[in-house]
Fold:
Amino acid sequence: MEYITLAREGKNEWWRYVLSLFAILVVWLGSSFVLGIGLVLFVMLDSDPNTQLDMLTGRIVGVDPAWLFVILMLSAAALCAGVLIAVRVIHSRPVRSLITPRAGVDWKRFAVGFGFFFLLSALASIAEAVLFPGRYEFAFKPVEFFKFLPLVLILIPIQTIGEELMFRGYLLQGLGLWFRRPFIAAIISSLIFMALHLFNPEVSVDPLLLPAYYFLVGILFSLITLQDRRLELAMGAHTAVNVFTALVANYTVSALNTPSLFMVKTLDAPFGLASFIAMAIVFYVGLFVWRRAPTQ
Structure:
């Protein structure tokens, strides 16, 4: 069975999609709201003058960054929970159908996607560091790094898998029921993926190229999911992108406020977009063209 047709395993009346999207938003945004209000109340009532809500920026200051990271990731986990509830309860279809037509999830395929894209991210960072000397600053702080390490390794996969289940799973398959050509479903789901990332702080650096980057990320992950007829590669690659950013080379302007090994002083949007396009081509060719060459 083709991956994009797996939605047919469940009930697909139009009202179920309306109800499901509403339920997902309620679970996701509702959880984010509750967590945010809880943090604000904690800061206001903890009697610590160092912790406060900056009324100008709307940011919480003085709170341990690890707590802020956990709350951010828990909000993303709520998205994952909302998708699973909608698929299982409203559509009456197995959760497995969001990932694969097979009997179980292939975690080795996840590891391939993670390892390959993590390597490509490292090579792109090395190229940037060579081309732009001084842009990468060694920022390793052992105590902070190892405090965040288990949080990143546990919570970021939940966040990225949740996004993949939503955009390359639920939305891509759902749109595939309405459009005969899968690339239309891929474009629409990628536009929605891009739109929800417009609130990331790094977008302010380049409001044109950064949205284009997020759109191309969505297109790449949709393409490899449709080509591979399963979701594990996209889940692994997406996890690699965020783990690499969080632990290896983060930016001074980033949605992931984590102590990485290196801090990149400049978010170079043109270079980032060009390097991602090169990485996407190598990733696709390495997985679906080069490996099949001997048999053609």
About this structure: The first strand starts at residue 52 and ends at 53. The chain has a mean pLDDT of 91. Residues 142-178 form the longest helix (37 residues). The radius of gyration is 20 Å.
